[in-house]
Amino acid sequence: MSERTNTQVFTEELEDILVAEDEQFPFSLVVWNDDVNTFDWVIASLIEVCGHTHQQAEQCALIIHHNGKYAVKEGEYHKLHPMWEALVERGISATIEEMADR
Q1: Angstrom distance (rounded) from CA 23 to CA 95
Q2: Half-sphere CA count of 84, side-chain side, radius 13 A
Q3: What average pLDDT does this structure show over 68-92?
Q4: What are this entry's molecular-function GO terms (predicted)?
Q5: How confident is the model at residue 1 (pLDDT cuts 50, 70, 90)?
Q6: Using CA atoms, how far apart are residues 50 and 46, in angstroms rounded to an integer?
Q7: What's 15-31 look like in SS3?
Q8: Which domains, ranges and CATH numbers included, belong to the chain?
Q9: What percent of the chain has pLDDT over 70?
Q10: How would you classify residue 68: left for phi > 0, otherwise alpha for psi between -120 and 50, otherwise beta?
Q11: Cα dist. 45→1, 7, 19, 22, 62 in Å?
């Protein structure tokens, strides 16, 4: 193979990888700040529902409080949907949003 062909193959493989990464995590689970839920409830919910460590959940809760919202999880829609349902059932405001181009 010539050098040009190797470069083309490498470029095509790299593009395939980048597309696959974008398709793998096209959605985010966003939790919104409210005046109802306590920090402890949000932290416990993120641990139980999303599988966060206590430290991760605590950091997410602080970001949610200060920024008004935070994407607590990224992934495929079918994996995020049960988490969204569980959070909403707990009275936590959450949405699933399509991620913008990165």
Answers
A1: 19
A2: 18
A3: 97
A4: peptidase activity
A5: very low
A6: 5
A7: HHHHHHHHHHCCEEEEE
A8: 27-98 (3.30.1390.10)
A9: 74
A10: left
A11: 55, 48, 32, 27, 14
Structure tokens at 23: 């398709």
Helix residue ranges per DSSP H, 25-91:
39-50, 54-67, 77-89
The closest alpha carbon to 60, from 41, 77, 78, belongs to 41
Kindly report, residue by residue over 33-74, the tens digit of the pLDDT.
999 999 999 999 999 999 999 999 999 999 999 999 999 999
Q: Can you tell me the distance from the alpha carbon of 49 to that of 76, in angstroms, rounded to the nearest whole number? A: 16
Tokens of 95: 């949405």
- Give the per-residue pLDDT at 100: 78
Residues in the chain: 102
